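Deliverable D2.4 — example input (structure tokens):
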């Protein structure tokens, strides 16, 4: 039997045909870049920041003479390691360009840092040997990269995903280093993004921090239901899926892109017109699959925190978790204890405040907690 491609992707960006909407966000990002504005792209988890940034990369590379370099800082513990990721991405990008003199200037960059490249034994692609420490300090290494990019004929957009990780680096204070970098090279635009929204936002909005008011803040919201409806119906083709079922998918996911994609991916696999019973069945299976991870939170959190999390999930959205009605109906004890548990859940981003309501951040986790 020929394998049918499942059009509902649940990993990464796999091309525009599998991508729903985000036209306005894409144009907004492009216009920030064309007008020399650096951007912070922030949103709650799994709404599609990284996918949108990859769409942007794809779009710019297709339509403009500009370089786009995507780097993900997840897993980097030091500025030195983050520099290694940037150098590698720069090397991969420019190494493939047929620009006169580019190989020479790449070699000069590596030589000035005392780095070399070798072939990765698994992918056979050239890679900078970042295990060797650069001859220069981490801050100077970053600036050498800035100078290299600034010397190129075309503008470069550097996308730094999971940028909040720099606040955890244990070698140098990386915030001023990146702030200097962002201010110094006029041919380099930067998009900062990350999945820890509170941490990322406070870097750019706290007036005592280096990045205060230095960039445009841009949030992304759920994709509107009518656009998602058209996208889903289109991909289901002749197999019927009603607007009622799509609305149910959307609200169960609270409009979160990943959870919508996940449900559609499972439903598409059934290879038939969809009925409500199918939806219930795939949700059972999704929650069962995640259950061991979710259940472990009762060990990771105090009883008070776990009970509060469960109570918030059960009410779906809570305006005042310290109100006596809420405390009594969920048997949560004193308001002061709930206040400190709430603070801790917010710090961990397990609970978020959205439009004056407290919610359990992870939608699937909320759905699982609601069944306890
Ligand atoms: N516009 C879209 N159309 C279809 N699928 C999308 C869209 N945006 C994102 N996705 C899918 O949703 C999932 C989550 O997207 P992505 O990883 O970009 O989110 P994120 O906001 O970067 O998440 P995190 O907060 O974990 O970094 C991915 O599997 C991606 O394939
Ligand atoms: Mg992401």
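Example output (designed residues):
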């Amino acid at each position: 039997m020929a394998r049918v491609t499942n059009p509902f992707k649940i990993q990464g960006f796999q091309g525009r045909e599998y991508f729903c909407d985000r036209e306005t966000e894409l144009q907004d990002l492009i216009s920030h870049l064309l007008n020399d504005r650096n951007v912070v792209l922030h949103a709650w988890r799994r709404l599609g920041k990284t996918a949108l940034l990859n769409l942007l990369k794809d779009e710019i590379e297709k339509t403009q003479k500009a370089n786009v370099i995507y780097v993900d800082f997840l897993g980097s513990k030091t500025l030195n390691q983050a520099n290694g990721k940037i150098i590698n991405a720069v090397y991969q990008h420019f190494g493939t360009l047929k620009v006169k003199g580019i190989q020479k200037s790449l070699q000069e960059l590596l030589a000035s840092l005392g780095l070399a490249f070798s072939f990765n034994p698994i992918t056979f692609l050239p890679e900078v040997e970042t295990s060797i420490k650069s001859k220069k300090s981490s801050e100077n290494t970053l600036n050498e990269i800035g100078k290299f990019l600034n010397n190129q004929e075309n503008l470069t957009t550097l996308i730094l995903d999971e940028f909040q990780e720099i606040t955890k680096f244990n070698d140098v204070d990386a915030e001023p280093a990146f702030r200097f970098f962002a201010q110094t090279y006029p041919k380099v635009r930067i998009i900062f993004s990350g999945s820890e929204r509170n941490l990322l936002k406070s870097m750019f909005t706290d007036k005592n921090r280096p990045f205060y008011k230095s960039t445009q803040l841009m949030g992304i919201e759920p994709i509107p239901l009518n656009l998602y409806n058209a996208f889903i119906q289109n991909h289901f083709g002749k197999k019927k899926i009603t607007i009622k079922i799509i609305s149910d998918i959307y609200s169960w996911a609270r409009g979160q892109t990943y959870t919508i994609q996940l449900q559609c991916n499972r439903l598409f696999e059934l290879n038939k017109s969809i009925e409500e019973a199918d939806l219930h069945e795939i949700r059972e299976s999704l929650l069962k699959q995640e259950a061991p991870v979710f259940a472990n939170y009762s060990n990771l959190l105090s009883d008070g925190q776990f009970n509060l999390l469960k109570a918030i999930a059960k009410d779906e959205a809570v305006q005042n978790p310290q109100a006596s009605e809420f405390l009594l109906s969920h048997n949560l004890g004193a308001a002061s204890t709930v206040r400190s548990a709430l603070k801790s859940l917010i710090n961990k981003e397990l609970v978020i405040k959205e439009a004056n309501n407290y919610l359990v951040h992870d939608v699937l986790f909320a759905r699982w907690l609601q069944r306890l």
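The chain has three domains: 22-219, 225-291, 297-369.
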